[in-house]
Amino acid sequence: MATLTRQDLNFGQVVADILCEFLEVAIHLILYVREVYPSGIFQKRKKYNVPVQMSCHPELNQYIQDTLHCVKPLIEKNEAEKVVVVIMDKEHHPVERFVFEISQPPLLSISSETLLSHVEQLLRAVILKISVCDAVLDNNPPGCTFTVLVHTREAAARNMEKVQVIKDFPWIVADEQEVHMEEAKLIPLKTMTSDILKMQLYVEEKTQKT
Amino acid sequence: MSRDGWRKKASEDDGWGGRGGYMAAKISKLEEQFQKDAPREKQKEGTSSCIFSGVAIYVNGYTVPSADELRRLMMLHGGQFHVYYTHSKTTHIIATNLPNNKIQALRGEKVVRPEWITDSIKAGRQLSYIQYQLYTKQKCLSFAGVCAQGGQDPLFSHGPPKPSPSHPKSDSIKPSHTQTLSKEVLKSTQANFTDRTNHQLDVRLNGSYSIISEEDVERPRVNGIHDGDDDVNACALLPRGSQDTLLTNGYVHPVNGALKPQDSVSFAEHRPHVVDTGSHQSHLPQAGCRDREEPSCSSAGSKANSHQSSLISTASPAKKPDPHNMQKDLHPEPTSNPGTSAATQKSNLQDQTRVRLNGSYHVTPNSSILANSSNQPGSSTAQGAEAGIISEFFSHSRLHHISTWRNEFSEYVNALQSRRRAAGGAVFSGKEKLKKIKANCSSGSLMAAPQVRQSCILHVDMDCFFVSVGIRHRPDLIGKPVAVTSNRGPGRVPQRPGANPQLEFQYYQRKQKQYRKEKTDDDLEMTPSPQFDEGPSNGVDLDLAALSMAEIASCSYEARQAGVRNGMFFGRAKQLCPDLQSVPYDFQAYKEVALTMYETLASYTHNIEALSCDEALLDASALLVELGVTPDDLAQSIREDIKEKTGCSASVGMGSNILLARMATRKAKPNGQYFLRSEEVDDFIRDQPVSSLPGVGRSMSSKLTSLGVSTCGDLQQLSMSRLQREFGPRTGQTLFRFCRGLDDRPVRSEKERKSVSAEMNYNIRFTQVEEAESFLTNLSMEVQKRLEGAGLRGRRVTLKVMMRKAGAPIEPAKYGGHGICDNFARSVLLAQPTDDGQLIAAEAIKLFHAMKLHVKDMRGVGLQVQQLEGPHADPSGQGPSRGRSIKDLLLAKQPARSPRKDPLAQDGLTSPSSSRAFSSNQERVTPPSSPPSTISDPMPGTSKGDFHHPRTPNHVRASLNISIEVPSPSQVDPSVLEALPVDIRKQVEQSWRHREEQPSTSYHLPSPPRTSSSPPAPSFGTLVLQLPDQPGQPCTTGIILELPDFSQVDPDVFAALPRELQEELCSAYRNKANAQAQGTTVEQKNTFPQLKQPAVGKLKHRYKKRNASPAKKGPSPLKKLFPGNSPAKSSPSKILPLPLKQQGLKTENVQCPSSPSTDVPKTLSKLNPRPVPTLAGAYEFSDIRTLLREWVTTISEPMEEDILQVVKYCTELVDDKDLEKLDLVIKYMKRLMQQSSESVWSMAFDFILDNVQVVVQQTYGSTLKIT
């Protein structure tokens, strides 16, 4: 049984690839489910063997891709603690925060056989959960926008300044306004635990959205 | 003392090894001496006889004539005198007064007053000792055995009745029997005479019955014939005996049988039919059946006995019969063989008797062993089931004596006060005296009063009370190590079979490691289970197994210096301190002295709280101010008074509160006084061990030790919140205060009793469930007696059972003791307070069955009645009236009784003449405003002042149950109602009535703020129609909660789903719809929809179930599932689920995306260093859910620790970043608990949720949204 450890070169990358791929699907789906963009720009696709919605708007897609591209190095180094999709109202006050809390097991060995299919099952569960999350969330006010935040561990943010993955696409420190949400209610959506990563998705929802 | 020390000691050759040890040598030497002296004495006296040939007496305690004189008399008249009691050789014990312990131990022995000897000599013959028995109650059962030696052998009983010449002495003997027996004896003595053979015979008898059975064959029949006239004899000749049976079935006295063989036989045989109360019938025949192999017999009862008699009749002749025992019956025999080593033969005979006894009883499996060990101590174990044994036990139990005294003295103090009130004042002689002294000496000096302005409590405690009382007329013992104990011998007793002292010792040693604590120096410290206390220090070892296990009730300070402690076993103490003198109990004297002490105290003030027979608290604050004396002066005066009047010394501790006064006493002892000044308190208390605090027992001190706390100073370092977390809010607070010397308990001269109980953990050996039941009934009667004595009635009945710990030896090292036990307790709340023994018994038996225990392993049973209400229950909310006196109580009792006798009377509307009935109705009708009439203080010893609080919520809840749980009349199937027992039906109907009156009661519940703190009392006794388990339903609803509205499901998405998924979703939505419908009905009607269409059988079943396992306080499912009870303790690897199960889950997962079950790659999670959060070992959500459901549905009152477990688990989930599971758990609990019939559960849920939200808030900055 081949075992991989974090010390193996490609290990972090493997995890980051999987996770970023998933995040991309998730973000699209969130934007669709939460009606941040009109449903017309979304197309039905199939991912993880379940139907998902994906935007066909090239700029939006590009933005999402770039963002995730920048998140990836952090994930590779296990420096990203949370990836947050923030949905903000017109005044740029967050009304919902989809928090992907990521933690990777510090030390483990993986058996190659169970890895992918199993993780895929777990990710599918999360996706499905997202697709039904509007049942537990209040409707958003019209005219919402979104942004993606990354909570990094320790000093990762400083290092990031030095290594700009994509030119002209730098990370900036988030406004307090964008992060802080008053009287938030926490709604856990899904927790997945696999041998390569442990991730939980929860929504923080503003009590009064309007 | 370490075990090694003992072993060394044991192995050291004392030089007597060759002679069977020092004691054996000494005894035989004494015997020789006696034999040598005898002729000399005879010569001197001139007159001599052989009246007492075969009799060996042992004089116990003080007698008239003295022991020396008795010894001389025995020499003169052919008897034996034993300086040391030897069970096997001594035939009679001469005593005028014996302590209870001794009586218990000697149950099988002939304890006779000395007059027997003198009168016998006067009469020139050995009189029947029966009239001289010290305790007339000793006897009975053993008859079965001894009888057998007598005439009952049918083979011979048909011989021609020829009056034996030896007869004139014993008037009651039937000639024919004597004849036959002597014949038989002669016959068998010819056959085998030596001891050796006897021994073999013993074994054979007990080991294989086949040999005897040839004789047996005819017996039953013949016995049957005989029964008739024997019966008459039994009744006619032994009237006293038969009367006594009712009381003392368990008590054994073989000699009776020896003297009147035929009587005893018939007596034993017929008791089951004629005399016995019935508890017997079951086991006597049973034992017989077990004994014998021939199945065909007339009546079981006679069969048993006949068999026994055959056993014995073959056995006894084989040896030379005990010359005394058999004297009357076998006159020819002893006279023909006088002077041969009677002692050894006697021993054999007695063995036999014992074997039989046990055989006829219940220890049958042991009998062969018993026979072989020639030294079986005491008598046959009395059976717990015996009718009357309970009152017997309690009338002799010294603990019981002492505990009743406390009440007596409390009442005495109460009476004093009421007398004073009545007289408008009282004469305080002591006070006056002190005043005079004060006046004399302080005439010139200035008044010393000012500093005493503060309150001052005196704690008066007699110094080693029992000892000082015991030796007050024996100046020779002053200054010597003295112990009060029942054992007077050398401190050795033979080891009993089945007992395994080593094992117990090891167990106690282990325990001791946990509970190593300072022994307190308290004189009267007699714990109910001294084995547990003193087991360790008793150091049972191979050799020590033979040490006496009689406990030392009290020992002098000289003995304490040698390491002897109260509660220690005497044998062990004797080893520690060879000079140790033992003094018998003298209850009368204790009582006198105690009363004198209280009188003395009362001559100073009436603010006395009686703590026990030898200690009391005085609130001297006012007195000191009035007299203007210092506490020291007062204490000095009191001590002098007590010394003068009682001849015993007392120590006095003084402090500003009870706690400090008690602690000061510790320092004052012995025979001193100590005033703990408030400025010294801090320094003083810092060094006190925590165990000296009241309420800190073994378990708490061990817990404290684990926290690194050994002294009060250490304890002061812990914060209040920490303590409350560890020990619960109330106890935590009390500890917090105590360790700072703070104590606000008042000296309460009038004490409210909190519970009335009766417990017995000695000699409990059941073989049948019926025995246990009848025992419980008897115990209930005892409780009833006590309740009536106290004029109280209680609502909560708690059954406590001690069960032999698995693996513990069958026979404990202490004879008749309980050995190593597990304790179980269950309680039930009655609808009405009661003192009716039958009712209590019924509840107790129900509880007993619900516990599903193995009767044979029962070692102790206790019944406790709590939540007491006096007949004075005061509806105005004043609680127990402070000014209540005993007299009031007595007056009030009369009218109050009448309504109680008829429980239905209470169902009627308030009868104005009876405050009792009124208040009980009151409680039910208007629960929230109903006043607490009595208290159940959760922690004894903590502030008693505010005892109302804990009760209030209980009341509310109890009444709430009725209104909530009973469905409205329209929803109840009338046939179901019909099928209910009358009382339940009444209750249901009554609750309907109440509901009409107060429809909204249940909703405006002031949520008691203390839910979390004190585990609220469960409310039983009301009609609980539990939500039946609905497998699957909770599960589906659990999923539903996550589902979006069906309308919101994107049809496209839905269509794109695989087919299985679609189906899954559809069914989920259907379920959701159902559940919502149900939910609404629940909300709207506040009833359980399940009740709408219950079949009669179903409801019955439910009712039955409830009866069988009424909501219990017992082990909660959380505990059951995981004995360790602490998830933290468990290693995570242990609780990893089985891979097989996961496989199933996984597939399920695929099919059901909305199912939240977590999937973990099990193969790898082992390697995950992070411990998985578990609840009582459960890890999978489904398990958690099952656990929670079981918890909520089976238990009516969540226990605090369980709630905390759940909170802890939830917190761990947060830490583990498993919010989803947390969410599911919370939601599941919400649904379960808020739907639960008990409002306690809602409160429990609120408490859990609050705690979890705090944690989530801290971690995530926001709180969970609970929908």
UniProtKB/TrEMBL annotation, chain A:
Under InterPro entries, the record lists: HORMA_dom, HORMA_dom_sf, Mad2-like
Q: Which UniProt keywords apply?
A: DNA damage, Nucleus
Residue ranges of domain HORMA in the record: 13-203
Q: What is its main location?
A: nucleus
Q: Name one GO biological process term.
A: DNA damage response
Superkingdom of the organism of origin: Eukaryota
- GO CC terms for this protein? nucleus; zeta DNA polymerase complex
Cellular compartment(s): Nucleus
What name does this protein carry? Mitotic spindle assembly checkpoint protein MAD2B
Q: Which organism is it from?
A: Anabarilius grahami
From TrEMBL, chain B:
**Positions of the UmuC domain:** 457-697
The places in or outside the cell where this protein is found are: Nucleus
GO BP terms in the entry: DNA repair; error-free translesion synthesis; error-prone translesion synthesis
What Gene Ontology cellular component terms go with this record? nucleus
InterPro entries registered for this protein in UniProt: BRCT_dom, BRCT_dom_sf, DNA/RNA_pol_sf, DNA_pol_Y-fam_lit_finger_sf, DNA_pol_Y-fam_little_finger, HUWE1/Rev1_UBM, IMS_HHH_1, REV1
- Which positions fall inside the BRCT domain? 47-134
Q: What is this protein called?
A: DNA repair protein REV1
